[in-house]
Amino acid sequence: MEWQTPWRFGIVYVLLSVLVASLHTSSGLSSELASGVSCNNLFQGSWVYDESYPLYDSASCPFVDPEFDCQRYGRPDKMYLKFKWNPNGCELPRFDGRDFLERWRGKKMMFVGDSISFNQWQSLACMLHAAVPNSNITYKKGTPSTITFEEYGVSVMFYRSTYLVDIVSESTGRVLKLDSIQSGSAWLGFDMLIFNTWHWWTHTGKSQPWDYVQDGAKIYKDMDRLVAFNKGLSTWANWVDSNINSTATKVFFQGISPTHYQGADWGEPKATNCYEQKQPLNGSSYPGGPVPAQSVVNSVLSAMSKPVYLLDITLLSQLRKDAHPSKYSGDHPGMDCSHWCLSGLPDTWNQILYAALI
């Protein structure tokens, strides 16, 4: 195998991605996708106060991981729980867990991705549990982890795959293989798949779970992360196009979930993280602008032959600088401005998922 030096053309790539994404965008769930909702774009809007929120009490949900259980681990404020997403020009339907279970009676769905996918999976499980708290529910941890609502025959699963492509231990070390998906057989046979990846692509140093990255026959010590992300996501896209029967399986891609570690991004230069942020940003725009990885997602999805519905959660999540665990996490040392409290923001992601299905 040929060894190469790191790639250095990420900036050029990003500019090209933006151009491609502007020509071919998959970033809106329109009325064509959400037949029960008349809305041009569920992802453009603002956050409004609503006393009826949250949709469930985290203390009553048996599935919430300590990492996301902010109230249990000492978060003193509750204002962040009281906001709902208000899309421009339409009303996002309130989540109806019983209706969701009836519509998906006898079916299986799987979240595939990293800890942000895990965050959304637990949110959906809590939302469904709140609708049928006395129903017979089984929870099996493993690979995948499975929560089954026995009365309805509905299974909601989570399969951890941080990059979607493979990391393989070889004699030289741990190799991130950008053109390989060996675990894909575990994702077949489902009625709905919700994929995500990005969070780990930016990790470097000791927090990075691989030593080398391989593209075809070439191995690199490192690679521009947007370039690598594009290659890995393209491998996943080819896998979906080659293996998924769209008449039997609905496929979603969870968009890029943002972080809040730089206050300048939201207009508070003195803020060094999300700690003590208590309310969303006002309005419908984010001062820091889009995340570069969004352009990669848009360009890859636009080139696919099979339909993949993008949950374009980035902007609405960027506005929620207040919704992270920060230091109120039971299983995440330090300051967590990457994941999200439950109950909280991921519940809105699942409300939009529900709107896309009704």
TrEMBL record:
GO MF annotations, alphabetized: xylan O-acetyltransferase activity
Q: Which Pfam families match?
A: PC-Esterase, PMR5N
Q: Which domain of life is it from?
A: Eukaryota
Q: Show the InterPro entries listed in the entry.
A: TBL, TBL_C, TBL_N
Domain Trichome birefringence-like N-terminal stretches: 41-91
Main localization, broad class: Golgi
Q: How does it sit in the membrane?
A: Single-pass type II membrane protein
- Signal sequence region: 1-25
Q: What Gene Ontology cellular component terms go with this record? A: Golgi membrane
State the UniProt keywords alphabetically. Golgi apparatus, Membrane, Signal, Signal-anchor, Transmembrane, Transmembrane helix
Where is it located?
Golgi apparatus membrane
Where is each Trichome birefringence-like C-terminal domain found?
A: 92-355
Family named by the database record? Belongs to the PC-esterase family. TBL subfamily.
The protein depicted here goes by the name Protein trichome birefringence-like 38
